């Protein structure tokens, strides 16, 4: 099993920035895809951003496009989510997701991001 541990969440004012990190228990070069999802209170979990193993492709939800940047550092076995110009609607628990061979999905336990107005 792949263990994913998120960090970097916290309380920030609207317009501020946070950088989330997700450390993997295995070499991320062996993980086909990495991404971030989030879940706001009383809402379903939604896709935020994803990056392929070789960084050839990134994909973002329309709601965060232009504000968030996903990146991965295979040498550090870590994927990042740089979040700028944060809005109150960005509040939620952010989960790291990894896709391995055979389409197997792995999930972190989440880190809470709260954006105040």
What would a concise description of this structure say?
By secondary structure, the chain is mainly β. The protein has no helices and eleven strands.
Kindly describe this structure.
The structure is a single chain. With about 120 residues, this protein is an all-beta fold. The protein has strands at about 5, 10-15, 20-25, 35-40, 45-50, 60, 70-75, 80-85, 90-100, 105, 110-115. Strand 4 and strand 5 form a beta hairpin. It is globular and about 40 Å long. The model has no long low-confidence stretch (mean pLDDT about 95).
Can you tell me the overall shape? globular
Average pLDDT figure: 93
Q: Round the Cα radius of gyration to an integer and report it.
A: 13 Å
In DSSP terms (H or I, runs of 4 or more residues), the helix count works out at 0
Helix coverage percent of residues? under 10%
* Largest sheet geometry: 7 strands, mixed
Element string (H = helix, E = strand): EEEEEEEEEEE
Low-pLDDT residue intervals, each spanning 5 or more residues: none
Structural class by SSE content:
mainly beta
Give the percentage of residues in beta strands. Answer: over 45%
How far is the N terminus from the C terminus? Answer: 39 Å
Number of strands: 11
């Amino acid at each position: 099993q792949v263990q994913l541990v998120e960090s970097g969440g916290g309380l920030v004012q609207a317009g501020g920035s946070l950088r989330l990190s997700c450390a993997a228990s295995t070499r991320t070069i062996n993980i086909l895809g990495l991404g971030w999802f989030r879940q706001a209170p009383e809402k379903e979990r939604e896709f935020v951003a994803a990056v392929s193993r070789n960084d050839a492709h990134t994909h973002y939800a329309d709601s965060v496009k232009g504000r968030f940047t996903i990146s991965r550092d295979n040498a550090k076995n870590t994927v990042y989510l740089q979040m700028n110009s944060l809005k109150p609607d960005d509040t939620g628990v952010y989960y790291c997701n990894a896709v391995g061979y055979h389409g197997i999905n792995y999930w972190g336990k989440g880190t809470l991001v709260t954006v105040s107005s």
